[in-house]
Amino acid sequence: MSTLDQTAVSSLRAEFPALQERANGQPLIFFDGPGGTQVHRSVIEAMRRYLTEANSNSHGAFLFSRRTDETIAAARRALADMFNAPRPEEIVFGPNMTTLTFNLSRAIERTLQPGDEIVVTWLDHDANVAPWRALEEHGIVIRQADFDPTDCTLDMESLRATITERTKLVTVGYASNAVGSINDVRRIADLAHQVGAWVYVDAVHYAPHGPIDVQALACDFLVCSAYKFFGPHLGALYGRYELLDALPAYKVRPADNDPPHKFETGTGNFEAQAGTTAAVDYLASIGQKWGREFADRFPGFEGRRLDLKTGMSAIQAYEREQCRRLIAGLQEIPGLRIYGITALDRLDQRVPTVSFTLEGSTPHTVAQRLNQANIFVWDGNFYALSVTERLGLEEQGGLVRVGLAHYNTTREVDTLINVLADMPR
Ligand SMILES: Cc1ncc(COP(=O)(O)O)c(C=O)c1O
Q: Hey, what domains does the chain have and what are their CATH numbers?
């Protein structure tokens, strides 16, 4: 049976133009995926084709406009397949996750009363905190659930305590972009639904690392960004159709009143939608080639929906092994402290985003020194401001973040460990 292994990864790396780039004649190592992944060549080709063969505005009577309408419809079908959403009309496109979330928070605010409560968490990216905190000026009460600083996992007791009879929305990340922990979204959704609250899931960081199923998660909204899963800069939001239909939208009068159009203000980024469909098809192709062994996990799935689930499962299994190697290697380095889950028997509770500090060097210096070795990593708070604040790291420059993607190799992980081990302090 074919599995996604080093040989398979080297063959698919050849299909990513950016991964062939060099600096000073040396290869580049991309561990910056949590800030944005590189794109598959089919994504570039789909965008080129859209701009050559369909470039137009939507809803016109002529050929290019009809091709644009088909481009949009295809992208909705692709995302609905990726999320296992019942209907393509439940997919709303926007510039990015942050803008979509601000739009939705304003729409939801119009259904709330002063004194109503929204639960956010300390583990989230600020794009899933600030849009909800903005509602405080309308009398909405924001409660913030804590995380356990020892392993950086959400404190479920704290979450339970923040949910009350007045809670109208619980908003959580699927996985932390700062420390990699995965939240038990289904359990959180059940807790929220017990008091009649909706659940909003930020899946931006999780999306490149595992299968997503909005029906199994029982979430009401889920949002992510294609540029984090090998596509172009585009945000996509899933919302349950009845909710999207019922929520008031800020829109211009001539625009369609039905979901999803009523939430898509102005002209969309159609070339990015074309590229996003290609990115989804690329992930499905991984399922076809290397995901067959996971098919039993997804009874009732077929076609692209099945290929996406098996493809993301293959990616998850491959990344877990790389993550094991990365954590084990980092733990050998004196003065290096990892923030997040490190137990090798708990790797199913995290994505392969591993953040750390190194005694004697600021995170920024470490990132700069790694850059000298052509290794790309991020440093700082990655906009997950409440995480670095809660860990007391904000004043010291935050964390160094190594984000693995499925296109990273064992050799790249080993190179990183060696460079870090030899790094002057
Ligand atoms: C977990 C998480 N949520 C939200 C965002 C914001 O996404 P966008 O750039 O699409 O607004 C990011 C971006 O890094 C992220 O990692």
A: 6-40+311-420 (3.90.1150.10), 44-280 (3.40.640.10)
